[in-house]
Amino acid sequence: MHGLGELEAVVMDVVWGSAEPQSVRDVLAEITATRPLAYTTVMTVLDNLHRKSWVTRERQGRAYFYSPSATREEAAARALRELLASTGDPDGVLLHFVRSASEGESALLRRGLEERTDR
Hints:
Layout (H helix, E strand, L loop, with lengths): L5 H11 L5 E2 H8 L7 H13 L3 E6 L2 E6 L3 H15 L3 H11 L2 H15 L2
Antiparallel strand pairs: 1-3, 2-3
Helix pairs in contact: 2-3, 4-5
């Protein structure tokens, strides 16, 4: 995901993949199934994600429990908007994308625009 480092993206995948808030231990248990990490490493990554507003946290006893501040789709849309703004010609990039979109993507874009105008 744009704006996340490699390990931050792995941690966010765990947080996004859970229906419940996750403690550092929860995230660590999920990640260490595929790669060894220290507790303090995961704690630091979650603290950084909180500072960057990717996650919210709530203290329960002595531990923090983390939840995503936005869905994966909302975060991707925000990243896309930031990427478009950084190009210097967001209109040109967006038009190029629309012109190169597949039929399925075009139908989805039309549906989204129709839903937006229905508000």
